[in-house]
Amino acid sequence: MQPIERIYVANLASNDISVIDAVANAVVATVPVGSQPGGMAVSPDGSRLYVANAVSDSVSVIDTASNAVVTTITVGAGPRANMVMTPDGTRIYVSNSGQNNNSVSVIDAATNTVLVTVPVGETPGNMAISRGGTRVYVANNLGSSVSVIDTTSNTVVATVGVGAAPAFLVSSPDGSRVYVGNRGDDVVSSSSLSVIDTASNTVVDIVPLGMLGALDISGMVMTPDGTRIYLSGGNTSNSVFVIDTTRNELLSVVPVGSDVGASPGDMVVSPDGLRVYVANFFRQSVSVIDTSILVEVAIVQVGLLPGGALVMTPDGARMYVANVGGNSVSVIDTTSNTAVATVAVGRSPRNSVLVRTAAY
Prior knowledge:
Layout: E1 4-11, E2 16-21, E3 26-32, E4 37-42, E5 48-53, E6 58-63, E7 68-74, E8 83-85, E9 91-96, E10 103-108, E11 113-119, E12 124-129, E13 135-140, E14 145-150, E15 155-161, E16 166-171, E17 177-182, E18 192-197, E19 202-208, E20 219-222, E21 228-232, H1 234-237, E22 239-244, E23 249-255, E24 264-269, E25 275-280, E26 285-290, E27 295-301, E28 306-312, E29 318-323, E30 328-333, E31 338-344, E32 349-357
Antiparallel strand pairs: 1-2, 1-32, 2-3, 4-5, 5-6, 6-7, 8-9, 9-10, 10-11, 12-13, 13-14, 14-15, 16-17, 17-18, 18-19, 20-21, 21-22, 22-23, 24-25, 25-26, 26-27, 28-29, 29-30, 30-31
């Protein structure tokens, strides 16, 4: 029996989650949650979805079989960024950046309670977890650092200084490196990529990305084999920066979006690593980059202000683009690079995840 695939879309302004059936391309449920939902994490078996509510200072736990909230967990102030879960699904880590909270809440999935609150650096945001689940890496945006949390003791075992305004992190497939995209401060520090050696918790390399104010990193992905990193150049660069991780060098800069002001942002890489897809926020489009030649090979028109995360099916056949200004999700056929459906969702969809479960 084929597993069921559904796309869960967090709607920031309507305070709910739209549930899209990936076969019918239709909303099958709308789940009310807390105020300003954003970050989400899915249990390994797909039975639970955890939703961080930034203004409610809480995490809603959704049973994906009934599409109902089964409990709400109070966490620290302002859980606005992504959440990470240990590979066994027993712990969920939530960064809290509001009201100088500067902490990470650790949730026990069995009891749906906060086990401990871990103090970290200033204004924690996005996180990454090691492949084995033994370490969580937290980007402290205003602290220009990464906090390293040991998931056994749930304590910070290292604080690693990186570039100004670290915003995105990815862990290499073998767990030996963590790559940190630093936005820079437009005054002293330009945008850069810091390379952390996870054995020593030290920065072993820095890859410069642009002049002061030239690059506002808005997205970051790694190919499945870990040999390349792609960073979208936000407001001014209108490009995607390609890093060769075998040498930690800038390999190429790929123009996208057809003209100045496209503001490339959220990205996703295909499962085979042959294509990278980039949402152009101000051009209502998604650029398709061929990774073998590092050229934009197609532009797919989607809805208004695409930028609420890009999600791809495991086989790479379909991609879902949340359109923040259009209150919709565009469905792209990746073979023809065309939008085959538009699904109306809640107001201001800002994040989405794919959930696979066994047939009910």
